[in-house]
Design a protein that fits this description.
49% of the residues lie in helices and 14% in strands. By secondary structure, the chain is of the alpha/beta class. It has a single domain, classed as Aldolase class I (TIM Barrel), CATH 3.20.20.70. Strands 1-2-3-4-5-6-7-8 form an 8-stranded parallel β-barrel, surrounded by 9 helices. Helix 5 links the parallel strand 3 and strand 4.
Length: 287
């Protein structure tokens, strides 16, 4: 199967009231689990092999794992660089064959975020890839769930979002509307009015980071307000670790490390399939 190049899958998801899932991969087993879920569901999926997982697996190794899996699968898979602040890293992934990249200038002043994003867009166009950027800031940690609490001071401003998209030419915009990286002690409540206003103000699909544990009705409300890509990480991590915890006592008796890895991989597949189902509302439209 050809890699998922271009924004057609993203735009089709927006039109149909569902979302393209972006699943974070850290190693061979998580890449395999995500790929198996895409094949079983028959839906387009992004393998997000990005900046933070590179610290564990190594950039070249994880890039090749993700790209080889996508290129050799019967599923419609894209490979996405998530949360990169480094133009050199972005360029390396584009040259390797990534189908999309996220440039994260959300920590920068507005004008500097525009400049960084515009340059990432320029480089991506040379490689036929699309670009996601972020405006606003999310609480929490991308890799460790810490019971973060949503902030209200760094939410995305609709008017500023319109200016940002026009100035950068970005293809998708990640927004901060009360969403949080990782699981939270208290239920997350999205600012749906703000999300709707952003959707009205910008002509590109919106992206929701920090969707793990988000109540399904909130998720569907977000899909109805322009969200066409949803990032999930913590749910897959939790499923992997729980499977390892359950399998480990028996595996220790025979030093059976393969059974532990396989259990983690299969748990990632099951968790990803549940997410994919949630990202497709029963009536095909967000509520």
């Amino acid at each position: 199967m050809m890699l998922l190049h271009g924004t057609d899958a993203l735009k089709r998801a927006a039109t149909e009231g569902r979302a393209l899932p972006g699943f974070v991969a850290y190693n061979l087993e998580t890449v395999q689990g995500i790929t198996a879920a895409a094949e079983a569901a028959g839906r387009p999926v992004l393998i997000q092999a990005g900046s933070s997982p590179f610290k564990h697996a190594g950039r070249q190794a994880l890039m090749r794992l993700a790209l080889d899996a996508a290129e050799n699968s019967a599923a419609h898979l894209g490979v996405h660089l998530d949360h990169s602040r480094d133009l050199e890293e972005i360029t390396a992934c584009l040259r390797a064959g990534y189908t999309s990249v996220m440039v994260d200038g959300s920590h920068l002043p507005f004008a500097e975020n525009i400049a960084l994003t515009r340059e990432a867009v320029r480089r991506a166009r040379d490689h036929g890839a699309w670009v996601e950027a972020e405006l606003g800031a999310l609480a929490g940690n991308e890799d460790v769930s810490t019971n973060a609490v949503a902030r209200t001071t760094a939410m995305t401003d609709p008017a500023q979002a319109a200016e940002f998209v026009a100035a950068t030419g970005v293809d998708a915009l990640a927004v901060a509307v009360g969403n949080v990286h990782g699981f939270t002690k208290d239920p997350v409540r999205l600012d749906l009015e703000r999300l709707a206003a952003i959707h009205e103000a910008v002509p590109v699909p919106l992206v929701l980071h920090g969707a793990s544990g988000l109540p399904v009705e909130q998720l569907h409300d977000a899909l109805a307000r322009g969200v066409a890509k949803v990032n999930v990480n913590a749910e897959l991590r939790r499923a992997f670790l729980e499977a390892v915890r359950t399998t480990l006592p028996g595996a220790l008796a025979g030093s059976d490390v393969v059974s532990v890895w396989a259990a983690g991989r299969d748990a990632v597949t099951a968790a990803a399939l549940e997410v994919i189902a949630r990202l497709t509302p029963p009536d095909g439209q967000g509520s």
